[in-house]
Amino acid sequence: MQILHPFAGSIQQYSEAISDPDLHRPDHCPQCAAQRPLTAHGFYTRTLTDVASGGVIRVRRYLCQACQRTVSLLPEFVLPYLRSSLAVIALFLIALLFRGQTLQSAAASAPPPMPYQRGQFWVRRFRAQAEALCAALAALTQPAPARDFVHRALAMLESTGWIAAHRFLFAGVRCHLLGWPRGLAPDGRRAALSTAAAPA
Ligand SMILES: [Zn+2]
User: Fold this and answer.
1) Contact present, 79 and 92 (Cβ < 8 Å)
2) CA distance 88 to 54
3) Nearest CA to 26 among 65, 79, 77?
4) Which helix (H) or strand (E) holds 71?
5) How far is the CA of 165 from the centre of ligand 1 (A)?
6) How far apart are CA 190 and CA 192, in angstroms?
7) Ligand 1: centre distance to CA 16 (Å)
8) Interatomic CA distance for residues 103 and 116, integer angstroms
9) How confident is the model over 85-114, as pLDDT tens digits?
10) Which helix H or strand E contains 47, and what residues bound it?
């Protein structure tokens, strides 16, 4: 299973932090009743396109000796199954839906530029989630006055910060920010809600 890695910092800092297996080692298994710290179990790699860079990141994996299942620590700036980082997606949605750029110009000026079809996919999912997102975000911030749910959701996300909302959604309503079905979204974990767990 995947759990969210409560990490605040740059991708570079993340890469350094996960080299130490003890730094974010889960102290119990989220999948069985075992209350023992998990064993470091290597990494897997995945591609990630971010504002500043594109490339490959490592994702830390742990093994539960009791149930023999693995847990991977997905950093919060990454959305499962999407190549682009949350920051890239946020900038694109703001440019298109808030500033009124066209799909083509938002895609062309996105950092890095990308095929407009990718943005179209995000927009479709965001629109479908907007109303539920507003309801969920009301726990974090005041509902913003806006002409529709899409604009209200964007304003609220700008106010809470996208990563804070990402964490909240995983732990709370367990529905993915961009509308993936529940079955595909990683499970949240309570610890991810605690800001004390995040390194400075
Ligand atoms: Zn276990």
Assistant:
1) no
2) 11
3) 65
4) strand 70-75
5) 28
6) 5
7) 27
8) 6
9) 888 888 888 898 888 889 888 888 877 888
10) strand 39-49
Give residue for tokens 């997606």: 89
* Residues in contact with 122: Cβ distance below 8 Å, sequence separation at least 6, in sequence order: 89, 92, 93, 178
List all residues 6 or more positions away from 161 whose beta carbon is below 8 Å from its beta carbon. Answer: none
**Distance from Cα 152 to the centre of ligand 1, integer Å:** 41
Dist. CA 60 → ligand 1 center (Å) = 17
- 3-class DSSP state of 63: strand
d(CA 71, CA 63): 6
| Distance separating alpha carbons of residues 54 and 64, to the nearest angstrom | 32
Q: Which amino acid makes up residue 165? A: A
3-class secondary-structure state, position 41: strand
DSSP, res 96:
I
The model's pLDDT over 122-152, given as tens digits with 9 standing for 90+, comes to 888 888 888 888 888 888 888 888 999 999 9
